[in-house]
Amino acid sequence: MFESRIASPFAGESDAIASLGPIGRAVLRCREADIGSISDKLGIALPRAACRSESNGPSSALWLGPDEWLLLHADLQDDWVSRLAAHLEGELCSLVDVSHRQVALAVQGARAAEILASGCALDLSPRAFPVGMCTRTMFARAEVVLWRTGSMSFHLDVWRSFARYVEALLREAESEN
Amino acid sequence: MLIIPCPYCGERPELEFSYGGQAHIDRPLAPSDLSDEEWNSYLYVRANPKGRHAERWRHIHGCARFFNAVRDTRTDHILATYKVGEPEPEIPA
Q: 3-class SS at A73?
């Protein structure tokens, strides 16, 4: 598999901040009227509510905008996006493979929200940012996709070239007590 | 930092947004029929009010959608935000 030859950009590994390895990613855009039929063909209900996600087995759909979703697949397979495209035959939509554009970190543990808050201006309390909520936002000067996967775990997707920058700031926050 | 209510995502910090100039400026349907003065006016002449100003904003680091906002240029208070295509809301003084 070619992806195993692509080096991780991250410098370190810890319990609180861990690389999530290669993940399949695609950006799907379609009109509101087509959400139902596209959801049926994908086998995952595209969330219509702002900043919400849906998961089905290894696949997840994250709302990024009213006509835009980030589709994730837990393990990267070369033909995942082409298989999705085959399912969507005949639908008017755009599907772009961005698997290698971004890399992902898990930020987890009792201090996860505190570590993220060092660079993110959003309210990350469970009431304001419940499990399943996802959004594009800023971490320091880098755009990221932040997704709360559990009460004390976050998935952070960042463009590959910003990965070291984001990781370094997170590790600095992790080291502060 | 300003908190700006995106019509799609709700209240978000200012740093997720970018400014897009005055709102409700329609591109002329037949630009070639316009005089130079009319075209100049469409391209370059903008209101510069001291007070309420309807303007375009984009939630570029969020849902990436354009929307309109009414902002008071004296206080920097955002008085209303609404989706593109909707009329400017009436706001009591």
A: strand
SS3 A37: helix
In a domain, B92, yes or no: yes
Q: What average pLDDT is seen over chain A?
A: 94
- How close is the nearest chain B Cα to the Cα of A4, in Å? 31
pLDDT tens-digit map of A3-60: 556 778 898 889 999 999 899 999 999 999 999 999 999 999 999 999 999 999 999 9
Q: State how far the Cα of B7 lies from the Cα of B64, in Å rounded to an integer.
A: 12
Asked if A135 and B15 come within 8 Å (Cβ–Cβ), the reply is no
Instruction: Write down the residue that tokens 């309807």 correspond to.
Output: B54
Q: How many domains does chain B have?
A: 1
Domains present along chain A, CATH in parentheses? 11-175 (3.30.1360.120)
pLDDT of residue A66: 96
Q: Is B1 in contact with A121 (Cβ distance < 8 A)?
A: yes
Nearest-Cα distance to chain A for B51, in Å, is 28
The pTM (predicted TM-score) of the whole model is 0.92
Question: Does B43 fall in a domain?
Answer: no
For residue B73, being part of any structural domain is answered with yes
Please name the member of A64, A66, A138 whose beta carbon is closest to the beta carbon of B15. A138
- Residue A133 DSSP symbol: B
Distance from C-alpha of A62 to C-alpha of A60, rounded to nearest angstrom = 6
CA distances from A162 to A94, A140, A144, A159 (A): 26, 11, 9, 6
ipTM of the complex: 0.90
- From residue B48, alpha-carbon distances to A120, B45, B54, B91 in Å are 33, 9, 11, 19
Q: CB-based contact (8 Å) between B58 and chain A? A: no
Q: Which residues of A touch B1 (CB under 8 A)?
A: 121
- Residue B58 lies in domain: 1-25+50-93
